[in-house]
């Protein structure tokens, strides 16, 4: 599958009163068409900042993208037809195969605010963590869904509202034609998250970014929302970036997993591969920390000793070295690069868990 | 909505009842009310005659019932000074005070809300600094001092506006400005802080993630939410300013409620003072009732949450 998003060496800093917080330190990943990529990591590992910064959704200042690129390959639909080459137009008319990727790739990080606004919501949808606070409390639900259609599809109000009703029905809101007049406080948490999802998919985006969409919900509702995402992925053929710290949810929905620590990717692998064969000490620690159905109730949950790294310090070595049982000299000398250890499996670690010894790099 | 309004209405009635009881006892709490109302050198016969005339020799409960009955039909007795019914005199002053309070409020809103909004959206810019400076100035400048200053500059030196009275449209500029200046200060600060708070809300991030245009975000999503705290403050403070400003109306010889208060106290005209106190309370309670209604119109959580 061709990539739809290719992020390379992203750096994001926040300038605070205490100093510069190095929130994201060289993150690279790709998102393929139709794929669900989970980004996993503990609080402060930079997973939300990574995706929010791609679309200008971090507050600037204090935040600032200080380096990297984010090539987006889906922009052709929104491009000015008059400026397209003959080949591109032929492709759009279905008369030619997809030309080389150059014509569609655009660096999100280099776009003007206006261009980004067209991408946001129109081509990349968002679902946020807390559905209680992510809807405007004093606007009717219908209005909040339909305004994105008016904005990106140029639909007149009535038509947009009709579409909104259909969308709400599609995400499982009962009696949508009555509910559009309701306000967020008249919905439960799970129903509100469905509304947020309806907003995210309203303009049939190419990518949906879901930032801990189930964290604020209780477990049964979590499962419903995960199921809804699975169904939508099939219906809409959309790529999903799913940010979470819950490895249990990841197993249910992701194709591939990116594990982040200290603002850096430490391991990326296909989901089954990651669970069966974790290659980074942090990933193994995370997997051990999962509660198991077959464990004895009185057993204490495993945890990784130590605390997350101080992001105020510039990164000069492996961010996990402090907490790592396997750390040796090299881990304190430089930052381990992401190296390939199998098909679609990369890890950033100088220690080879399989060999039980330093890795040859 | 109906339940909400009904409960507010009931509260208003209870408050007014409490005000009436307080006003009734206000003149009796220090002992013989006759001592408050007649000159110290009055003869014993005159005191006795006055007591009979005012009905102060009757049992307290009878007096209270009489007072309440009168209050219901707006009868608070005659003004001691003017020898005519007190309440109509008070009501007669309302238009002037309404005019002054309205002018002040409009001046405050016109300046404060745009400044506060811009300051809240773009903190740290020069216009934000200007707003914060004016906010501080408005809240910390004593109105009587500002009034004198205005008279010196604009009435005496420049001669642009009259220094006192209520004769033409020009008369209201100076007192209206002084009246609005303090409220403007409070309003700039409130608008700014409310805007900054709303701007950081999750649903504004959602609005941005939809790719909405900035003007849509500001007007539809931010401004409407900022209005909720603003309406309550504007409504209540307008209610208070309808009670009249003693300083400003006295300095500018503005024939409103505040001036009447000052005169009535000077004359020890207790029936008149009682009428003013009750009338002012009614106005304040009515304004906050209106504010509650406006509130319900803006915020659906109140409108539907019965």
Please provide a brief summary of the model.
Chain A: Residues 7-287 form the ABC transporter domain. The complex is a heterodimer of chains A (361) and B (306). Chain A is of the alpha/beta class and 361 residues long.
Distance between the termini of chain A: 29 Å
Helical region count of chain A? Answer: 12
User: Could you tell me the mean pLDDT of chain A?
Assistant: 82
Query: Over the alpha carbons, how many angstroms does the gyration radius of chain B reach?
Result: 24 Å
Would you identify the regions of chain A where 5 or more consecutive residues have pLDDT less than 50? 77-84, 99-103
Q: Report, as a whole number of angstroms, the end-to-end distance of chain B.
A: 7 Å
The total of beta strands of chain A comes to 14
The succession of helices and strands of chain B, N to C, reads: HHHHHHHHHHHHHH
Oligomeric form: heterodimer
The number of distinct helices of chain B, counting runs of at least 4 residues, comes to: 14
Q: Which structural class best describes the helix and strand composition of chain A?
A: alpha/beta
- Helix fraction of chain A, binned, reads 25-40%
Main sheet makeup of chain B = none
Rg of chain A, nearest Å: 22 Å
Strand arrangement across the biggest beta sheet of chain A: 6-7-8-3-9-10-12-11
Characterize the largest beta sheet of chain A: strand count, sense, and whether it forms a barrel: 8 strands, mixed
Shape of chain B: flat
Relative strand content of chain A = 15-25%
Task: Report mean pLDDT of chain B, rounded to a whole number.
Answer: 85
Shape, principal axes of CA atoms of chain A: globular
Domain ABC transporter (chain A): 7-287
Pfam families (chain A): ABC_tran, oligo_HPY
Main location (chain A): membrane
GO molecular function (chain A): ATP binding; ATP hydrolysis activity
């Amino acid at each position: 599958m061709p990539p739809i998003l290719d992020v390379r060496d992203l750096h994001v800093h926040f300038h605070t009163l205490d100093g510069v917080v190095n929130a994201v330190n060289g993150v690279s990943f790709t998102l393929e068409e139709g794929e669900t990529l989970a980004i996993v990591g503990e609080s402060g590992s930079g997973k939300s900042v990574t995706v929010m910064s791609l679309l200008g959704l971090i507050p600037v200042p204090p935040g600032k993208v200080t380096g990297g690129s984010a090539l987006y390959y889906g922009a052709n639909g929104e491009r000015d037809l008059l400026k397209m080459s003959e080949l591109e137009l032929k492709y759009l008319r279905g008369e030619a195969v997809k030309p080389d990727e150059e014509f569609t790739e655009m660096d999100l990080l280099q776009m003007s605010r206006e261009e980004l606004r067209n991408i946001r919501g129109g081509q990349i949808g968002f679902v946020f963590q807390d559905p209680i606070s992510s809807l405007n409390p004093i606007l009717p639900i219908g209005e909040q869904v339909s305004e994105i259609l008016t904005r990106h599809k140029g639909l007149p109000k009535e038509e947009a509202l009709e579409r909104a009703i259909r969308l709400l029905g599609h995400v499982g809101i009962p009696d949508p034609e009555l509910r559009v007049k309701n306000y967020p406080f008249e919905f439960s948490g799970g129903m509100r998250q469905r509304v947020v999802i309806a907003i995210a998919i309203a303009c049939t985006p190419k990518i949906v970014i879901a930032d801990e969409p189930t964290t604020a919900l209780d477990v049964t509702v979590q499962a419903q929302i995960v199921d809804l995402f699975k169904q939508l992925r099939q219906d809409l053929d959309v790529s999903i970036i799913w940010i979470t710290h819950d490895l249990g949810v990841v197993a249910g929905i992701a194709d591939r997993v990116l594990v982040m620590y200290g603002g850096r990717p430490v391991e990326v692998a296909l989901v089954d591969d990651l669970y069966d064969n974790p290659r980074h000490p942090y990933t193994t620690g995370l997997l051990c920390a999962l509660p198991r159905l077959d464990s004895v109730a009185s057993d204490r949950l495993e945890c990784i000793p130590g605390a997350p790294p101080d992001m105020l310090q510039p990164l000069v070595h492996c961010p996990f070295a402090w907490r790592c049982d396997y750390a040796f000299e090299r881990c304190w000398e430089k930052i381990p690069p992401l190296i390939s250890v199998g098909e679609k499996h990369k890890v950033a670690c100088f220690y080879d868990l399989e060999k039980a010894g330093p890795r040859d790099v | 909505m109906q339940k909400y309004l009904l409960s507010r209405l009931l509260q208003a009635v209870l408050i007014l009842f409490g005000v009436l009881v307080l006003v009734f006892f206000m003149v009796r709490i220090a002992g013989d009310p006759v001592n408050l109302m007649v000159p110290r050198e009055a003869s014993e016969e005159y005191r006795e005659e006055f007591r009979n005339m005012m009905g102060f020799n009757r049992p307290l409960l009878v007096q209270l019932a009489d007072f309440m009955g009168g209050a219901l039909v707006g009868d608070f007795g005659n003004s001691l000074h003017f020898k005519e019914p007190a309440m109509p005199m008070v009501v007669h002053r309302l238009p002037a005070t309404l005019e002054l309070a309205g002018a002040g409020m409009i001046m405050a809103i016109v300046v404060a809300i745009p400044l506060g909004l811009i300051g809240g959206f773009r903190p740290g810019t020069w216009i934000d600094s200007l707003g914060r400076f004016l906010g501080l100035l408005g809240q910390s400048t004593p109105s009587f001092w500002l009034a004198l200053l205005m008279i010196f500059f604009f009435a005496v030196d420049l001669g642009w506006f009259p220094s006192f009275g209520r004769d033409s449209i020009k008369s209201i500029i100076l007192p209206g400005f002084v009246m609005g200046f303090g409220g403007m200060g409070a309003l700039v600060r409130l608008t700014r802080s409310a805007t900054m708070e709303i701007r950081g809300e999750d649903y504004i991030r959602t609005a941005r993630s939809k790719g909405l245009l900035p003007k849509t975000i500001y007007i539809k999503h931010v401004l409407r939410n900022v209005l909720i705290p603003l309406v309550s403050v504007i409504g209540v403070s307008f209610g208070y300013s309808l009670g009249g400003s003693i300083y400003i109306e006295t300095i500018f010889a503005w024939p409103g409620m505040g001036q009447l208060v000052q005169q009535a106290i000077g004359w020890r005209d207790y029936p008149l003072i009682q009428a003013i106190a009750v009338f002012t309370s009614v106005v304040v309670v009515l304004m906050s009732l209106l504010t509650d209604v406006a509130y319900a119109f803006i915020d659906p959580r109140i409108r539907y949450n019965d």
